[in-house]
Request: fold
Amino acid sequence: MTGPRLVLVGPPGAGKTTVGRLLAQELDLEFRDTDQDIEASQGASIADLFVYEGEKRFRELEQEAVNLALREFDGVLSLGGGAILSEATRDLLRGHEVLFLSAGVGAAVKRVGMARDRPVLALNPRASLHVLLEQRLPLYREVATWEIVTDDLAPDDVVREVLRQI
Reply:
């Protein structure tokens, strides 16, 4: 199968973008983030898209971005935290090397702070993350080739663990 060398999934605050960039650098590959792809193609932030277009439209854009990236990109790819909500995305991920960066509520909240740029967490990050993790955990695990718990790990430690496993 062609496509990314590695796809990162996980909740907000798990470190997908930070770890993805570091991994790409270590593997001498390019890094790509589907949330950044969406912002670039739409000329708007994810938060603004949620406000002005709605979550349903954002999820459609996300599905298109993931589909495109899985077809044309061969580096380290990071998906938005909610991308796995789409059954079509989960189907597309079959056969790809998918790393689930998991994080508990406490660690994720520390990392996202007040989450002003994360619309699904904007009102109450701790409560929202708790609900998201509960809802999405089985879906992350469904698509994952393997999982690394990032709670007590610095990004460099996560990268070392990934490199050890691949």
